[in-house]
C-alpha cells in the first residue's frame, strides 16, 4: 500500500510537469479540472482492484506470467497479449507489486483522458449544456465506465492511451509526428485489427473532409497508414485466425459464428447471431440496459448507457446527415472509426461483460461527433443572433439619422 501511495504522489508530480508544458501552448488548460480527473481516475483504480480481487481478471494473469518468467525481455515482444507481457516485464523487474503495476497502467489510462481533453478542447471551444444544466464536456470526461476499464493492468488502458494520443496528433501530424507514430504503434501492438479501423477511418476522413488540406500532408498520412496496413496485414488477420485464408468473407463468417456461440454460452452471454444489424449495433452501444444487467456493475453501467442513448438521440435529426456530409475531416474520421469498429465488433461480441469493456475504446469518437454537431448548431445560432442585433442596430441608426436630418 505504501508503494501505491508513493506512485499516486509521484505521478501527480509528473502530471503537473505535463500540464505546465502544455499550458505554454494552450490557454484553455484547466489544471484544477485535470487534477480532479486524476483523483477520480485513481478512485476507479481502487474500484477495479477490488473487482480484480473478487473476479477473474486478465490483470492477474499478465502480472503472474511475467513475474514467474525468468528469460530475457526482448524475446517476449509481440502483439496482443505478448505486448502486454512485454510492457509488464520492466515493472516486475523494478520490484513493483501487483497493486503498484496496476496503478502504473492506470496512469497510462489517465494520460489517454488527458489527450482526449486536449483534442476536444482544441477543436471545440464552445461550451455545450445538456439535460438543462450539465456541461457536456465534463460529463464526457467523467463517465464511470470509461474510467473503470482504463484504470488497470490491461489492454484497455494502453490502447485508450494510443487511440487518444493518435487522435490528438492527427490534428497536426507534422509538428506532432512523434505522438502520431507512437500512438499508431501502441494501437497496432495492442490490437492490430483496431489499427486497421483507425487507418481506414483516417484515410476516408481526410479524403472527404470539407477543409482544404495540402497534398503533402495528405500524401504523408496516406503513405504511412497504407504502408502500415500492408505490413500489418498478416498480424491483423491472425487475430481471427485468417492468415493465409483463400476465402476471407466465408472464413470470417465461420469465425464470427463460432465466436458468438462461445461467448453467448458465458454467464452474461446474449445470443446476437440471429439479431438484425440495427439490434446488434444497439446491443453493442447501449446494453446492458437495466433489465439485462448481469450484475451490480451492469446496473451502474446501465445508467451510463442510458445517458449514451439520450445523447445519441440528439443527432437523430434531419439535419445531421447534411452536417456529416459537410463536416471537417476529423468529424468524418471519428464517425467512420466508431461505425466500422462497432460494425465489426457486433459479429464477434456476444458477452455483455466483454461488450462493456470493448466499447470503451471507441465511444469517445461518437461523443466527439455529437459534441461537434451540437457546438456547430450553437455557433450558427450565435451568428444569427448577432446578425439580427446588427441589423436592428443599423435600422435604429438610420432612424436616428433621418430624425436628425429633419
UniProtKB/TrEMBL annotation:
The chain crosses the membrane at residues 6-22, 34-53, 103-120, 153-171, 177-207, 219-242, 293-313, 334-356, 362-380. Keywords: Membrane, Transmembrane, Transmembrane helix. It comes from the Bacteria. This is Glycosyltransferase RgtA/B/C/D-like domain-containing protein.
Amino acid at each position: 500500500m505504501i508503494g501505491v501511495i508513493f506512485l499516486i504522489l509521484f505521478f501527480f508530480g509528473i502530471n503537473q510537469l505535463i500540464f505546465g508544458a502544455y499550458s505554454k501552448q494552450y490557454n484553455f488548460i484547466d489544471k484544477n479540472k485535470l487534477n480532479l480527473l486524476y483523483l477520480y481516475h485513481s478512485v476507479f483504480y481502487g474500484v477495479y482492484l477490488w473487482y480484480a480481487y473478487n473476479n477473474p481478471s486478465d490483470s492477474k494473469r499478465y502480472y503472474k506470467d511475467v513475474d514467474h518468467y525468468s528469460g530475457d525481455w526482448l524475446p517476449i515482444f509481440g502483439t496482443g497479449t505478448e505486448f502486454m507481457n512485454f510492457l509488464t516485464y520492466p515493472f516486475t523487474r523494478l520490484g513493483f507489486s501487483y497493486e503498484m503495476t496496476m496503478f502504473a497502467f492506470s496512469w497510462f489510462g489517465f494520460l489517454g483522458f488527458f489527450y482526449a481533453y486536449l483534442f476536444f478542447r482544441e477543436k471545440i471551444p464552445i461550451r455545450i449544456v445538456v439535460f438543462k444544466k450539465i456541461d457536456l464536456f465534463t460529463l464526457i470526461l467523467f463517465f464511470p465506465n470509461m474510467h473503470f476499464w482504463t484504470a488497470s493492468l490491461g489492454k484497455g488502458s494502453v490502447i485508450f492511451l494510443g487511440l487518444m494520443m493518435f487522435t490528438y496528433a492527427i490534428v497536426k501530424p507534422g509538428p506532432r509526428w512523434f505522438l502520431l507514430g507512437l500512438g499508431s504503434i501502441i494501437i497496432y501492438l495492442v490490437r492490430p485489427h483496431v489499427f486497421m479501423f483507425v487507418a481506414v477511418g483516417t484515410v476516408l476522413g481526410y479524403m472527404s473532409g470539407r477543409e482544404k488540406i495540402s497534398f503533402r500532408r495528405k500524401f504523408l498520412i496516406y503513405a504511412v497508414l497504407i504502408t502500415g496496413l500492408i505490413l500489418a496485414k498478416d498480424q491483423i488477420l491472425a487475430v481471427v485466425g485468417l492468415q493465409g485464408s483463400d476465402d476471407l468473407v466465408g472464413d470470417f463468417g465461420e469465425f464470427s459464428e463460432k465466436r458468438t456461440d462461445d461467448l453467448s454460452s458465458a454467464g452474461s452471454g446474449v445470443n446476437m447471431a440471429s439479431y438484425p444489424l440495427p439490434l446488434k449495433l444497439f446491443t453493442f452501444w447501449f446494453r446492458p440496459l437495466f433489465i439485462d444487467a448481469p450484475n451490480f456493475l451492469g446496473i451502474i453501467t446501465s445508467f451510463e448507457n442510458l445517458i449514451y442513448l439520450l445523447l445519441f438521440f440528439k443527432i437523430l435529426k434531419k439535419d445531421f446527415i447534411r452536417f456529416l456530409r459537410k463536416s471537417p475531416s476529423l468529424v468524418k474520421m471519428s464517425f467512420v472509426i466508431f461505425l466500422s469498429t462497432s460494425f465489426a465488433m457486433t459479429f464477434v461480441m456476444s458477452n455483455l461483460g466483454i461488450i462493456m469493456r470493448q466499447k470503451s475504446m471507441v465511444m469517445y469518437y461518437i461523443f466527439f461527433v455529437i459534441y461537434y454537431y451540437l457546438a456547430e448548431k450553437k455557433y450558427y445560432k450565435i451568428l444569427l443572433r448577432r446578425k439580427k442585433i446588427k441589423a436592428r442596430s443599423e435600422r435604429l441608426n438610420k432612424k436616428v439619422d433621418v430624425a436628425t436630418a429633419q
